[in-house]
Inverse folding.
């Protein structure tokens, strides 16, 4: 492999300082890959995980219960997803855009591949608009390409999706169907000003009457359609676990980003008219409105350099003519006026979300559970009106998502952020899912993300965790990583998906013993919203430390009820080690920039982070990781049949070990603040780093065998094992040219 890391320190035309040059040189020599090093080293080698489903130690399909829906529809009981068989959780991923429409010849093999990794649910995302990006051409959606309208479904695309869903269903894989994601109405259907409207009509389609009616029309056409391969309409198929109304789309969020203020006509007038109608229902007359607004003339949002408002209502503004202006985002405003405007937006959203919900449930007779949009876009007090709560998060998301992008190349294990934020927003007594999560490529620490999310998600009692995305293209046999979000060729991530399935789906990680309830009533929430413009609610809203999520189960109670017995628990200042109250999870940041995370359960062991020469004790299993290119590694061990690690007799164990992983001949440019850019994505196959590590398991060495595995999970070579104090020592190294090993205890 010829892998070149190109470093760009600054774009300015000035000489690089000597000190910076020295530091840069040291970084290259110690952590990055230069052409000579890769060519001469055996530690990097091609390893692309096979797309074939194999019946071996890497196959987790036995955790799935097929066909999907055989125990009836998913429903909500006591704040959890259940079927007739009991509680159900979703270890899941996404298919995006063109990936939702594979040829029939591919669909069965795709379903088998997804089952192999232990995915029991697939989110069908971005079906309603042509999909493309700066690296791939735009491809058609489920909507028929017609010069006169975009209101009809494409029969060929629909047939492909139908067959895919039938194949998934047979394998025990449920689906999450997204309705509006990226559809952007245009002149064909009478909508003008597309170039001046928010992207995908976000926020606008929450109140524009005809857009709402067309969303209903699309839902009816799609969900009432009978899948010829199952004989069921999607409204009647229990394989459809969930339906999401509108992805990352809410009036409030769009308003706060200025999108509503920039609306062209006739949409601006429609929004103003609805605002005036709301005011008229509350105040009846302009005189009453002025009197109410004069009751609190405190100015909110006034910052240095801003001009304070001089009047509440302009001379030409009145309710009788419907001319009271809407508030401009970011401008200072009188308190009561802002309170009214924010309440108007919340009420407008509630009408939209619950109106669509009732249409699906009452008119279309949808039996699946339904969510609106994600937390962070809409108020939790609004979204809690629907069946379940959803959220999205990314670590080091590329910005902007075009050819000039940058991405931070940082490990999450050193920074307690994403996991805390996600856990701290769970709503009490509502099912909770994270339907998008990723450490986007080419961030080199991607292996940590999915494992940590599932470990804490299971500990917190979440109902679904979705990786974003398995694939975004119709090519289901790529040899390289060709976009930020697809993991189909990410060996470092896929290698640990078996551990993820064991942790979350099999339930190897236990739910927390104690639950911290954070009471948040609407009055306090709304007061904070008006003051700060923050639409969310979390533990901090109740004055609690976010790090409590690492120690106990946590939830926000929107009724404002008093919290649990541990509500007053205080985390000591400077605490660096956080162990769950189950003793199974530990996040350690004692050493600056050298954190690590571990899972220690009876049937799954995992380490991700910076080994730093430590011997990692995970119960009666120990790990010692050698030097790696990043100084960082991820090691997971899964007892396939949940029989432990040899301490109680027979065991079949999958060992995965990963470090650096990227494309052949990939050229990475480095910038300040750990930012990177790829100037040449390179080619396949995916190259990975072999890991030096010593693993000790509590098994009888005389009855233990170890084998290196090929990309299909089949045995290649036997790895020597040795008797040692505590059991059996196994030493793995790059010479085996694999990320997977099978340990068999006879």
């Amino acid at each position: 492999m010829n892998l070149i890391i190109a470093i760009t320190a600054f774009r300015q035309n000035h000489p690089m300082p000597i000190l910076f040059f020295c530091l840069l040189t040291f970084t290259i020599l110690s952590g990055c890959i230069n052409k000579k090093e890769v060519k001469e080293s055996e530690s990097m080698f091609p390893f692309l995980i096979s797309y074939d489903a194999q019946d071996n130690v890497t196959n987790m399909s036995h955790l799935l219960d097929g066909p999907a829906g055989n125990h009836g529809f998913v429903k909500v009981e006591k704040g959890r997803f259940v079927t007739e068989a009991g509680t159900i959780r979703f270890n899941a991923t996404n298919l995006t855009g063109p990936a939702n429409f594979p040829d029939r010849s591919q669909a069965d093999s795709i379903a088998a591949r997804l089952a192999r990794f232990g995915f029991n649910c697939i989110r069908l995302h971005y079906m309603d608009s042509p999909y493309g990006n700066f690296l791939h051409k735009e491809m058609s959606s489920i909507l028929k390409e017609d010069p006169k309208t975009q209101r009809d479904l494409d029969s060929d695309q629909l047939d492909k999706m139908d067959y895919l869903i039938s194949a998934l269903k047979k394998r025990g894989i449920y689906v999450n169907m997204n309705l509006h994601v990226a559809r952007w109405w245009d002149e064909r259907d009478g909508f003008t000003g597309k170039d001046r409207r928010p992207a995908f009509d976000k926020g606008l389609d929450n109140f524009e009457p005809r857009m709402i009616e067309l969303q209903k029309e699309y839902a009816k056409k799609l969900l009432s359609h009978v899948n010829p391969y199952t004989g069921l309409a999607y409204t009647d198929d229990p394989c459809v676990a969930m339906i999401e109304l509108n992805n990352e789309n809410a009036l409030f969020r769009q308003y706060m980003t200025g999108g509503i203020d920039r609306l062209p006509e006739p949409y601006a007038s429609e929004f103003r008219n609805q605002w005036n109608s709301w005011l008229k229902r509350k105040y009846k007359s302009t005189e009453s409105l002025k009197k109410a607004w004069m009751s609190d003339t405190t100015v909110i949002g006034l910052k240095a350099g801003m001009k304070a408002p001089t009047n509440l209502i302009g001379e030409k503004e009145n309710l009788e003519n419907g001319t009271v202006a809407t508030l401009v985002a970011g401008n200072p405003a009188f308190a009561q006026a802002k309170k009214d405007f924010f309440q108007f937006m919340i009420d407008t959203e509630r009408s939209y979300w619950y109106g669509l919900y009732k249409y699906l449930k009452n008119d279309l007779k949808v039996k699946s559970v339904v969510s609106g949009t994600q937390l962070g876009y809409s108020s939790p007090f609004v979204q809690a009106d629907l069946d379940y709560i959803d959220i999205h998060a990314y670590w080091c998301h590329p910005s902007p998502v075009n050819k000039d992008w940058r991405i931070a190349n940082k490990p999450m294990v050193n920074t307690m952020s994403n996991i805390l934020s996600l856990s701290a927003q769970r709503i009490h007594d509502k099912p909770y899912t994270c339907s998008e999560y990723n450490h986007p490529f080419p961030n080199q620490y991607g292996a940590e993300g999915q494992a940590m999310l599932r470990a804490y998600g299971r500990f917190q009692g979440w109902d679904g965790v979705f990786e974003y995305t398995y694939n975004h293209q119709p090519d289901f046999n790529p040899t390289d990583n060709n976009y930020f979000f697809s993991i189909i060729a990410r060996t470092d991530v896929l290698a640990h998906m078996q551990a993820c399935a064991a942790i979350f789906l099999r339930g190897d990680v236990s739910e927390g013993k104690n639950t911290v309830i954070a009471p948040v009533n609407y009055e306090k929430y709304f007061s904070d919203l008006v003051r700060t413009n923050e639409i969310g609610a979390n533990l901090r809203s109740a004055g609690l430390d976010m790090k409590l999520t690492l120690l106990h189960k946590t939830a926000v109670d929107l009724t404002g009820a008093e919290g649990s017995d541990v509500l007053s628990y205080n985390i000591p200042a400077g605490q660096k080690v956080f162990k769950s109250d189950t003793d199974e999870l530990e996040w350690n940041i004692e050493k600056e920039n050298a954190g690590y995370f571990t899972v220690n359960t009876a049937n799954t062991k995992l380490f991700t982070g910076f080994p730093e020469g430590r011997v990692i004790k995970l119960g009666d299993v120990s790990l010692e990781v050698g030097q790696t290119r990043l100084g960082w590694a991820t090691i997971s061990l899964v007892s396939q049949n949940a029989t432990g690690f040899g301490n109680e007799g027979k065991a079949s164990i999958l060992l995965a070990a990963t470090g650096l992983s990227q494309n052949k001949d990939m050229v990475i440019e480095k910038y300040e603040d750990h930012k990177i850019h790829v100037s040449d994505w390179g080619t396949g196959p995916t190259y990975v780093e072999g890991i030096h590590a010593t693993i000790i398991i509590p098994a009888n060495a005389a009855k233990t065998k170890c084998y290196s595995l090929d990309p299909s999970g089949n045995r290649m070579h036997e790895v020597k094992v040795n008797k040692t104090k505590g059991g059996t020592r196994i030493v793995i190294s790059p010479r085996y040219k694999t990320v997977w090993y099978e340990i068999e205890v006879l």
Summary: The chain has four domains: 4-41, 87-189+210-250+348-403+430-504, 515-578, 580-745.
